[in-house]
Amino acid sequence: MGILHDDVVIITQAEKEGDPSVITINCPDKTGLGCDLCRIILFFGLSIVRGDVSTDGKWCYIVFWVIGSPETRWGLLKKRLVGTCPSCSSASGISFYRSELQPPKPPDVFLLKFCCYDRRGLLHDVTRVLCELELTIKKVKVSTTPDEKVMDLFFITDTRELLHTDKRKEEVSDYLKAVTGDAMISCEIEMVGPEITACSQGSSFLPSAITEDIFDLEMPAELPSGSLTSRSVSVTMDNTLSPGHTLVQIICKDHKGLLYDIMRTLKDYNIQISYGRFTIKQRRHCEIDLFIVQADGKKIVDPSKQNALRSRLQLELLRPLRVAIVNRGPDTELLVANPVELSGKGRPLVFYDITLAFKMLNTGVFSAKIGRHLIGDREWEVYRVLIDEGDGLSVPRNKIEEQVWKMLMGWE
């Protein structure tokens, strides 16, 4: 007997508020599947408090215990998780995933031009609506005019692939109208070609002082206020406990997207997890055991490869994102950067968390841009936010940096 398509993902919702819901995934395996699943769970705002992963290299069985909220869209979450699993045929029962000979077609990019009278928290409210509608922000250019109007240019893709239809465009406009009311002036959506999105990127120049600081791939001497220290993360590797696998043991403090950060690092190294267990103890203390193999199905015995993977895991858990406040002439600019997966995907909800931090601090945003930059051998997604200091900066700079960092890490 095979597994039915509807049983690829089973979600058992918690009976009591505060208890974890259980997500069970039973499907063909592929390298990086855990990363893709954790990314979707992170996008839906869920926290993974426990996890079990096992696979024989062809078929995998994954269980996540997650904490959601009353607003969690469980049906849509299941649909997205099923969509990212390798294909299964409900008719034939079991069908191992097809190796993709060609990369998937990139999604169509649309330009959302949104004009509105300005107010504090507006940018976050608009960003929240786009996230709720499953519109992924690829790039953004936000500017404020002298007469207190904002012109937001969002380059977006639609997870539902319906933004080319009038009905979907009207839905987006109606949602934005509902959150902005009479303050909305106009809302236009049009498909754009690659030449337009390339031009929208703007200058790829970043000051050397910035690149040397926030993109440093060495272990930093200092970290943002309230963050981890090098002693907060322990990564050990052992080849003696299993004849065919390398055991990676990680002890660290929990943060938003922790399991995603581990999985994306292993995916970029083309490492497969044969068995793994993730648990959160008291005081958000995490313990992770992973039995892994390389792409050739063998354990990692080369000391240099072990050291490279160990160092990268430790760095990614200490600094999954980079946050800095810098001077831009007479103005103050916030920079947030996160490494892009080799697949080209960036971390979800970063702009959402940044704008929420500014709203909580009652601090305005004068302009904002998102761009991709190739620094060294890695691509980074960089968020540059020019802070509105029209009446003087009422919140200390270090307070802004600390609040953004806490929001991104889920420590607020």
The total beta strand count reads 16
Terminal Cα separation, in Å?
Answer: 47 Å
Estimate the mean pLDDT confidence.
86
Instruction: Name the helix and strand elements from N-terminus to C-terminus, one letter apiece.
Output: EEHEEHEHEEHEHHEEHEEHEEHEEH
- Work out the radius of gyration: 22 Å
- Spans where pLDDT lies below 50 across 5 or more residues: 89-101, 199-203
Protein name: ACT domain-containing protein ACR
InterPro entries: ACR1-12, ACR2/9/10_N, ACT-like_dom_sf, ACT_ACR9/10_C, ACT_dom
Domain ACT: 111-184, 247-328
Organism: Prunus mume (Japanese apricot)
Task: Characterise this structure.
With 412 residues, the protein is an alpha+beta fold. It has 10 helices and 16 strands. The strands form 2 sheets. The chain has an 8-stranded antiparallel sheet with strand order 1-2-4-3-11-12-10-9, with helices on one face. Strands 8-5-7-6-15-16-14-13 form an 8-stranded antiparallel sheet, sandwiched between helices. About 4% of the residues have low confidence.
Summarize the structure.
It contains ten helices and 16 strands. With 412 residues, it is α+β, with helices and mostly antiparallel strands.
Strands, helices and their partners?
Blueprint: E1 9-12, E2 21-28, H1 33-43, E3 47-55, E4 59-67, H2 74-84, E5 109-117, H3 122-132, E6 135-144, E7 149-158, H4 166-180, E8 184-192, H5 194-200, H6 208-214, E9 234-238, E10 246-253, H7 258-268, E11 272-280, E12 285-293, H8 303-318, E13 322-328, E14 331-339, H9 350-360, E15 365-375, E16 378-387, H10 397-409
Antiparallel strand pairs: 1-2, 2-4, 3-4, 3-11, 5-7, 5-8, 6-7, 6-15, 9-10, 10-12, 11-12, 13-14, 14-16, 15-16
Helix pairs in contact: 1-2, 1-7, 3-4, 3-9, 7-8, 9-10
